[in-house]
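Task card 7
Instruction: Convert sequence to structure tokens.
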Amino acid sequence: MPHHIELIMSGFGDWKYTADRDATISAYGRTECGGGDTCDCANCRNFRVARTRVFPDKFLTLLDQLGIDPLKDAEVYHNASRQAVMTMVDGTTA
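Output:
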């Protein structure tokens, strides 16, 4: 029996997109954890703590509409130090 694909069409700001939410949820369901959970360096530990607090509600709503689990980032890496006491860490969800 063929899989029924239900694409959603929506927008976020100036972006327009289509997505198969069910397929995305299924893919994230097969993913054990995000990239930031596979490393125990200080930057990844900090990202794990911060990621539940820093994403704006509007962005989290978008991720939910797309079926993306915000706790399963694809990659986390140290980007740059802007000051001696400030570090930038990037987490990418894919």
